[in-house]
Amino acid sequence: MAAGFLAVYLSVCLLLRCSASPEPNTDAFFVAEFFRRMGAPPLTKNDSSSDVCSWPGVSCECQCGKVTGLVASGVGLSGPIPETTIAKLSVLRVLDLSGNNITALSSDFSELCGSLASLDLSANNIAGSLPGNIGNFKLMESLDFSHNRFSGEIPREVGSLTNLRFLNLSSNFLEMSIPETFLGCVALVSIDLSNNKLGANLPVGFGSSFNNLTTMDLSGNRFAGKMPDLSNLPSLAFLNLSGNLFRDLSLEGLREALQVVDLSKNQFRRLISQVNRSFTSNSSSLIYLDMSMNELTGEFFLGLGDLRSLNHLNLAFNKFSSQEFVHIELPSALQYLNLSRTNLTGRIPSGISQMLNLKVLDLSQNHITGSIPELGSRSLRVIDFSQNNLTGEIPESLQETLPRIEKFNFSFNNLTYCAEKLPSAMLNSSFIGSQSDCPIAVYPDNVVSKGRKRLDLKLGFAIALSVFFSSAVLIFLALVCRRRTGPWTIKQLSYNEEQNVSGPFYFQTDSTTWVADVKIASSVPVVVFEKPLLNLTFTDLLNATSNFDRGTLLAEGKFGPVYRGFLPGGIHVAMKVLVHVASVTDEEAAQELERLGQIKHPNLVPLTGYCLAGEQRILIYDYMENGNLQNLLHDLPLGVQSTEDWTSDTWDQDNTCAQSITTDGLTTWRFRHKIALGAARALAFLHHGCFPMIVHRDVKASSIYLDSSMEPRLADFGLSSLVGFSTDGGNATFHGSAGYAPPEFSDPENASATMKSDVYAFGVVLFELLTRKKPTGDDEYSEDKVTNLVGWARALVRRNELARLIDPKIRETGASEKQMEEALRIAYLCTADLPSKRPSMQQIVGLLKDIEPVIGEQ
Ligand SMILES: *[C@@H]1O[C@H](CO)[C@@H](O)[C@H](O)[C@H]1NC(C)=O
Ligand SMILES: *[C@@H]1O[C@H](CO)[C@@H](O)[C@H](O)[C@H]1NC(C)=O
Ligand SMILES: *[C@@H]1O[C@H](CO)[C@@H](O)[C@H](O)[C@H]1NC(C)=O
Ligand SMILES: *[C@@H]1O[C@H](CO)[C@@H](O)[C@H](O)[C@H]1NC(C)=O
Ligand SMILES: *[C@@H]1O[C@H](CO)[C@@H](O)[C@H](O)[C@H]1NC(C)=O
Ligand SMILES: *[C@@H]1O[C@H](CO)[C@@H](O)[C@H](O)[C@H]1NC(C)=O
Ligand SMILES: *[C@@H]1O[C@H](CO)[C@@H](O)[C@H](O)[C@H]1NC(C)=O
Ligand SMILES: *[C@@H]1O[C@H](CO)[C@@H](O)[C@H](O)[C@H]1NC(C)=O
Ligand SMILES: *[C@@H]1O[C@H](CO)[C@@H](O)[C@H](O)[C@H]1NC(C)=O
Ligand SMILES: *[C@@H]1O[C@H](CO)[C@@H](O)[C@H](O)[C@H]1NC(C)=O
Ligand SMILES: *[C@@H]1O[C@H](CO)[C@@H](O)[C@H](O)[C@H]1NC(C)=O
């Protein structure tokens, strides 16, 4: 590089000096001389042309050798501009020497005053005061002295520049006040005096003098008193007064053209309500408003919501009176919202979840109460909720996004978060004062209260069923059988009247809010695989669930809420809403769902259909009448009174749906074996019978349902590509449920679901079936100081104390002890620490079939 420059330099030197040296006192000579004496490689081409007009950066109006423009930006010029060089270019109009290391102007510089219209000396190293003879440059239109070391006052003579349109004196050391003569620069379009040490009051009339002004930047100075009067600035679009000592706000006469207003870091102290009219009525093109760090009092102005183009709003750090957050209307297009320390009280308005462009949200240092709503925006980068009085859980969807967010802070609230979802490095600083508590998938309270009302109808099982209802899945056995056309039909009629409802629709459960962003409900089709002629729409789903009423909520799983209802034609279904949707297109989702709909096995809960309602994927499954294994094993009173209940005559008479339970009951080994074998067959089918094979990823007792004839059926397979948290990079794994995750998952490197992790989880279910102990936190083994079922059971199997493990209920029924012991050994194999030591699901099916109890053997 250096060598190249040198070569060029030398060749030009030869060219100029020796062979074709320009005639003295020509423009070519002055330019060549300028470059030579400023110590930079000249801008000549390396051909032998001596026509100055063909040199790079040089322009001439005619090819007569007279230079009208010289641009030498960032070419390494250094030192003072020498005498008798460029100042002698008699018709020079444009001079750009920015980005060099020029330290002073030449004393003959003012000779350019008769021609120069545009001078850019920005980003140099020029010190001293601005030249007083600047006033002689009558033709000057654009003057940029920014980023130098000019000091002293702005000379009075500047007022003579009546043609000046662009003035940039930013980032120098200019001081004192702006001279009154400045008002003479009537043609100004843009003034940038930012980052100097200018001070005192602005000259009276500053502002109203510049009819064509679009940009005014006085930021970072020491201006005080009244801010400029804007009423005569019809074209002003950009106003930055940030970082001064202004006190008096005068926003009367703000004009429509205004787009950017930065008044931050001053001492404005007027009642903000006076701002009201000024902003809301005529300034609809406002994009950016920053009034933070002032001393504004009173209440926020109303009608903020009318500022439709506003995308940046900062009112932080003022002295507002306390105000209910929900009463403040916010423009929905906002990308940046900063209401830190604005004396807000009450709850966060739910409208915030509809601000889909939000990138930065700062609500810190207020008195906000209640819980954090879901945030609909997918582009969040910064979130600060610190120092409020927020309570409850941080919404799961928000927690999922935190690892991708630049900065967040939830400290000093009373919030609950789920540490498992977050990288540990983030936890310490951002959740001070919060507690980690991973949510249970189900909210029993909600379900209980709904269930109890109906239970009054059925006094016969009140006791047994009240527990039943409180479980994850409502089992409406008796109700369904007897009252099939009861309350549901009535509800359907009442909702039919609202057929033409239009969205978007918002639905709320205890743990989440979900949105079906559809315009007209009846235009969104529901695909029902086996019954394509039904022509169902989203309206039918609304009707079937009384508009996704909480009363029809069956459970809230980790994928989202599950509702139940009857579709037209009497199809009894469970509808699972995937709240955390993966970013796949509708076509891809539909394709995947069509594939899942084709996967059929007697031991799988079949996908009946689906509906793509906006971004939501609603999956429709056959309704499983008899609940799931979790309910049957752990939630139902299998103890003292249960044997009678399940086999009692009353049950028998009332219940025509589930006969098999009466003969078998869950208290027999035979029935539990049937569940184990059914679930194993389902998994073996997913692993070895499907192409591409399917890893279930979430095998657990509550994924195994019992249909109307008490056949076990595995649910929730194949969802991994449809739910959000399984697709993006490091978070690609679905960590299973507590107690069911294999040891290899504790190392995040290995934590990807495989067939062998399904096998492990199946082993846990098998232990559960045999011991009727919960996978974690059961009292019994806690006495042995073991924290989970697997640890406890494996230790006892190893010590061959098998009898101790077996659920007394099935021990008492006299089932073959040997078979149960064998089943415990199978569960032991499945839960081997090393994945490679675990058998395949196909092998497990074989092992379980070998110990199948024969009917009558008990
Ligand atoms: C200029 O010099 C470079 C290398 O120094 C050479 O490649 C190029 O051809 C020369 N151009 C002219 C017009 O001579
Ligand atoms: C700029 O020029 C001055 C004096 O000519 C010199 O001391 C300084 O090092 C130069 N700075 C750069 C960045 O070239
Ligand atoms: C003034 O100059 C600075 C630095 O050179 C630049 O960042 C700024 O945008 C300019 N101001 C205007 C209004 O063009
Ligand atoms: C303002 O701009 C208009 C149109 O560009 C021009 O005709 C008028 O002379 C300008 N006003 C001043 C004071 O320069
Ligand atoms: C206003 O000026 C300050 C200081 O110069 C700067 O930090 C801020 O970004 C500017 N505001 C806008 C909207 O450009
Ligand atoms: C607001 O706009 C209306 C017309 O749109 C105009 O008559 C009125 O003067 C404007 N008000 C201000 C304060 O600029
Ligand atoms: C603010 O303006 C709205 C209408 O734009 C008006 O209803 C309200 O009373 C005003 N508030 C104050 C404090 O002036
Ligand atoms: C909100 O505004 C305040 C005051 O200007 C500032 O200190 C804070 O950093 C801002 N918050 C964010 C997230 O930008
Ligand atoms: C908050 O509002 C209350 C009453 O409106 C007021 O007394 C208090 O000073 C305000 N707090 C702050 C920090 O401005
Ligand atoms: C939070 O609530 C408590 C009790 O109501 C109150 O004492 C405290 O001042 C509140 N904190 C904030 C920051 O509002
Ligand atoms: C928040 O938690 C702190 C300590 O955990 C407790 O002292 C305070 O009463 C709680 N505040 C509310 C409003 O629950």
From TrEMBL:
The transmembrane residues are 459-481
All copies of domain Protein kinase, residue ranges:
548-855
Query: What range does the record give for the signal peptide?
Result: 1-20
Give yes or no: UniProt keyword Nucleotide-binding.
yes
Kindly list the GO molecular function terms attached to this UniProt entry. Answer: ATP binding; protein kinase activity
SMART domains found in the cross-reference section: LRR_TYP
Question: Which key words tag this protein in UniProt?
Answer: ATP-binding, Glycoprotein, Leucine-rich repeat, Membrane, Nucleotide-binding, Phosphoprotein, Receptor, Repeat, Signal, Transmembrane, Transmembrane helix
Task: Specify where it is mainly localized.
Answer: membrane
Q: Where in the cell is it found?
A: Membrane
Q: How does it sit in the membrane?
A: Single-pass membrane protein
What GO cellular component entries does it have?
A: membrane
| Domain of life assignment | Eukaryota
Query: What is the official name of this protein in its record?
Result: Protein kinase domain-containing protein
